[in-house]
UniProtKB/TrEMBL annotation:
<dbReference type="InterPro" id="IPR019405">
    <property type="entry name" value="Lactonase_7-beta_prop"/>
</dbReference>
<dbReference type="InterPro" id="IPR011045">
    <property type="entry name" value="N2O_reductase_N"/>
</dbReference>
<protein>
    <submittedName>
        <fullName>3-carboxymuconate cyclase</fullName>
    </submittedName>
</protein>
<dbReference type="InterPro" id="IPR015943">
    <property type="entry name" value="WD40/YVTN_repeat-like_dom_sf"/>
</dbReference>
<dbReference type="InterPro" id="IPR050282">
    <property type="entry name" value="Cycloisomerase_2"/>
</dbReference>
<comment type="similarity">
    <text>Belongs to the cycloisomerase 2 family.</text>
</comment>
<dbReference type="Pfam" id="PF10282">
    <property type="entry name" value="Lactonase"/>
</dbReference>
<dbReference type="GO" id="GO:0005829">
    <property type="term" value="C:cytosol"/>
</dbReference>
<dbReference type="GO" id="GO:0017057">
    <property type="term" value="F:6-phosphogluconolactonase activity"/>
</dbReference>
């Protein structure tokens, strides 16, 4: 098993790094850090076989690129900022990108050689911007990926909104929207195993909103909202990554500022009960992820250039195994074979 970590390349980083996962239980640790893809700004990426599909910036241009065994295969770059998120459908060979700065959502196909083709894109117009300073300039889609029913969904931080789309193979069509509270800062979401609920991370409010969801009739019910940080916390914080265990019983959210992972137990009514907040032993944890069996978790701390390894217990809680794993400017974590 390996772990890939990539992120910004503003200081020391050369792109995407790979670690070997060694041992098990309390002896588990990461070894042999090596730069496997030299690329500018791989703040998010996906993997399919030998292909890594990554965000890329180069000489004032941004976009997405395919690398195979460290070699550039294909790229789609445009003038200006690169996307913030990449989703993937491995069965259909489709990628979904959300560009925080330009407001553009895109669907891109890739073939068996990794060649990329833009299929369609839409731009979020700035119609109902939120009240916070991070929102008043424009729409800011931060997430674009699949729904349980085969549609697509985006999170717009600038407009506190979740938008749903149909994609017929050629064109994107808007279907419905769910509106979060003003200033929520809609960033990322996850769906429960039944597909009847989703959990939205609010970056600017440091909250999670639980929503009951009917994908056939596009009906939404606001179930509950809870904080990811202590009530006494009065410094800056931004909620970032959100993960739900495959059994739907435990939800995890990273806090950039409080520098922690909040662990929630999902109740019978799908509301959330906080059961743990654990330090990430570093600064600004943008992403964390786990292995296929969800036994181990790695969090990347962007500002302190380190990652942290945890073991996950059957009750959902995390226990520290190793901290201070050196890796520069990490914003994306992915376990691989």
């Amino acid at each position: 098993m390996h772990i890939l970590i990539g992120g910004y390349t503003k200081h020391e980083s050369d792109g995407i790094y790979q670690f070997d996962f060694i041992g098990a239980g309390n002896e588990a640790h990461l070894e042999q850090r090596r730069n496997v893809v030299k690329v500018g700004g791989p703040t998010y990426f996906q993997k399919d076989g030998d292909f890594i599909f990554t965000i890329k910036n180069e000489d004032g241009h941004g976009g997405i690129a395919t690398y195979e065994n460290g070699r550039l295969v294909s790229q789609l770059l445009h003038e200006g900022s690169s996307p913030a998120y990449v989703g993937i459908n491995k069965d259909k060979h489709l990628l979904y990108t959300a560009n925080y700065h330009t407001g553009v959502l895109a669907v891109i196909s890739y073939d068996e050689k990794g060649q990329l083709t833009l299929l369609d894109q839409v731009k979020h117009e700035s119609r109902a911007l939120g009240p916070r300073p991070e929102q008043v300039d424009s729409a800011h889609p931060h997430y674009f990926d699949q729904t349980p029913g085969g549609h697509l969904v985006s999170c717009d931080l600038g407009q506190d909104r979740v938008d749903f789309y149909d994609f017929d193979g050629q064109h994107l069509t808007h279907l419905a929207s769910y509106q979060n509270e003003d200033g929520f800062g809609t960033r990322h979401l996850v769906f429960d195993p039944s597909g009847s609920y989703f959990y939205v991370a609010g970056e600017l409010s440091s909250q999670v909103n639980v929503v009951k969801f009917d994908e056939e009739n596009w009906m939404f019910q606001n179930v509950a909202t809870c904080s990811t940080i202590p009530a006494s916390w009065d410094q800056h914080n931004g909620a970032a990554a959100i993960r739900l265990s495959k059994d739907g019983k435990f939800l995890y959210v990273s806090n950039r500022g409080h520098d922690s992972i909040a662990v929630f137990e999902v109740q019978d009514d799908h509301s959330l009960k906080l059961i743990q907040r654990i330090s990430t032993y570093g600064e600004f944890p943008r992403d964390f992820n786990w292995d296929e069996d969800e036994k181990y978790v790695v969090a990347a701390n962007q500002n302190s250039n380190n990652a942290t390894l945890y073991q996950r217990a059957s009750d959902g809680t995390l226990a520290l195994l190793v901290k201070d794993i050196a890796v520069p400017e990490g914003t994306r974590v992915l376990f691989t074979d």
